């Protein structure tokens, strides 16, 4: 099941579809979350994947060249992998130019602007193709006001990056819609924006405007409407906590769900930085979040149990729920535990 | 006593010195705060001042033309005044071009970019001079690593914006140097950058790189060296808390000093947002700051008592110190209370 297009937020991009997913020469699955997100939530709009020699990561789609993808209807190559710092390595350039020559536009969510790479810019101009940076924030973002807005808001937060905040928000928005509730997934990162067709690339916003960008992302709404907002980073992340805090303050969530991957011990890419406890994340999120919404509360826990057997996952979910006194579920597995989590978020 | 030139931050902004202070045609002293700050804290690196006809405000330096300033060693003209809206009026252009023609670069902390003014851009290109916007971050800021760096660090934090975090850091750096301690003022905003001749405009940094920018601002140093870092915003500010958190995480302070203005009740520009208590600021700063420096502690309180009589100021300082069980002082007033605050920061 895919997520409907919610292209109702200022700054929305219209991306050429279907996509060919580009995996570069990546060997670390955690860096391919864009590709996995598009496969899972916009799979009907992905014709295949394209990897360079040396890559060991796959999204499980049919491997094909850019020319084969174009013949199957693809209209853009989406860069489905990230690097630390968001740079485009030299080793990718020839493959990206091959895509332009095959008739595909290029869509990127990386920090580096496609058009800043001379070889890509020249090839795109020569071939009449587009270079689309999803990470470029819209113009005119205001300073945050802190003013209360109408409607209900749920924010996913986490013990780290890359462990399920986007998937959890997508699944909760889908679950609320399945109950007949008017709910909108709000994307705060590049993959989410590609899935939803709209959103705010929070980590690319100039810091003075972070809260204002989050306020813009989930605008005033009817009292019974739910915005389900994709979280970013973690308040405990040594590099990205400020993005998390700007999103928390500007989102003014009524409810937050803590996302966690059982078994992860250290912050991804920062060995030696121990993962915070879920209890610590709940405490800090309430302590900071009550500044802009004094009624903020934790709705429950979302566990990424993708690496576990069904039995082990069920045991982890039960153990976390009992220890914390809160509903816990893996939204990707769904089931009664997930329905109880939705109940708690709505209560 | 002025603060020494600390233009040693790798990769951060570094400004050509000494300065000629430009006062425009300003008639309102409140608009010349930058010039007064430079006079007070970088007076030995200001060769004189340059005002246009109609100006009634003086920083008390020797009046001179750009050519005279260049002959006395000046290497840049610093715009020391602000206008409503942060624009550069047409009436300034001829004077600024005269400075470029005299061999001076131009340094601006205004919102408007110097290079966006065609006449200035063309003159600078023709003459081979630089237009330096202090609000524009340097290129190549990395993602924060969270890695421990050598040396000691002190960060000023606050209950709000615009209540003395820069002056407190300047005064503490001066006080430590007066004791023979190797201390460096690290500027995180435009006026501080002009005073120090180097620094990082934190509020203009893209949010993903905030902690990395703060790490760059206070690099690895000898074990007995102190960086005294100018704080930004407040962890409780509904618009700017994320800037404060990125600076806190990246600075990894051993000691922080809480800056407060007695009598201020609401966040500046956000009526209805009550000022946090000093106790709450201490608690949150430790809770968040211990993530990158588990040894973080509060060194004391800096009170901005500029609006009070000497007797009322002394009473406020004593009352805060007794209530909190911490040294409190107004660094601008100095005296034994300030020396006790320095003792506590060093202990």
Automatic annotation (TrEMBL), chains A, B:
Q: Which domain of life is it from?
A: Bacteria
Tell me where in this chain the D-glutamate N-acetyltransferase-like N-terminal domain is found: 62-137
Q: Which SUPFAM superfamilies match?
A: P-loop containing nucleoside triphosphate hydrolases
Q: InterPro entries of this UniProt entry? A: DgcN-like, DgcN-like_C, DgcN-like_N, P-loop_NTPase
D-glutamate N-acetyltransferase-like C-terminal domain sequence ranges? 144-336
Q: Which Gene3D superfamilies match?
A: NAD(P)-binding Rossmann-like Domain, P-loop containing nucleotide triphosphate hydrolases
- Identify one Pfam family in the record: DUF1611
PANTHER family, from UniProt? DUF1611 DOMAIN-CONTAINING PROTEIN, GLL3100 PROTEIN
**Stated name of the protein:** DUF1611 domain-containing protein
| Species for this entry | Sphingomonas colocasiae
């Amino acid at each position: 099941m895919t997520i409907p297009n919610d292209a109702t937020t200022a700054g929305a991009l219209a991306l050429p579809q279907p996509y060919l997913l580009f995996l570069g020469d990546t060997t670390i699955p955690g860096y391919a979350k864009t590709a996995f997100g598009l496969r899972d939530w916009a799979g009907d709009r992905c014709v295949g994947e394209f990897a360079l020699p040396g890559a060991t990561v796959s999204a499980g789609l049919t491997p094909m060249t850019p020319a084969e993808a174009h013949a199957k209807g693809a209209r853009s190559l989406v860069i489905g992998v990230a690097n630390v710092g968001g740079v485009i390595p030299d080793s990718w350039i020839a493959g990206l130019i091959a895509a332009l020559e095959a008739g595909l536009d290029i869509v990127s969510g990386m920090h580096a602007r496609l058009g800043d790479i001379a070889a890509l810019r020249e090839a795109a101009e020569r071939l009449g193709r587009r270079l689309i940076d999803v990470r470029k924030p819209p113009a005119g973002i205001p300073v945050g006001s802190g003013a209360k807005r109408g409607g209900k808001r749920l924010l996913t937060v986490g013990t780290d990056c890359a462990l399920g905040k986007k998937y959890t928000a997508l699944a909760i928005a889908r679950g609320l819609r399945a109950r007949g509730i008017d709910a909108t997934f709000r994307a705060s990162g590049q993959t989410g924006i590609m899935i939803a067709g709209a959103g705010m690339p929070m980590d690319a916003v100039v810091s003075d405007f972070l809260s204002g960008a989050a306020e813009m992302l989930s605008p005033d709404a009817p009292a019974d409407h739910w915005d389900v907002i994709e979280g970013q980073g973690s308040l405990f992340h040594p590099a990205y906590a400020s993005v998390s805090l700007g999103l928390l303050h500007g989102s003014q969530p009524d409810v937050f769900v803590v996302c966690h991957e059982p078994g992860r011990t250290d912050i991804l890419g920062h060995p030696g930085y121990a993962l915070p406890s879920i209890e610590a994340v709940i405490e800090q999120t309430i302590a900071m979040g009550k500044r802009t919404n004094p009624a903020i509360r934790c709705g429950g826990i979302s566990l990424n149990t993708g690496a576990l057997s069904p039995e082990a996952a069920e045991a982890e979910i039960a153990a976390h729920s009992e220890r914390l006194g809160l509903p816990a579920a893996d939204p990707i597995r769904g089931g009664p535990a997930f329905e109880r989590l939705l109940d708690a978020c709505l209560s």
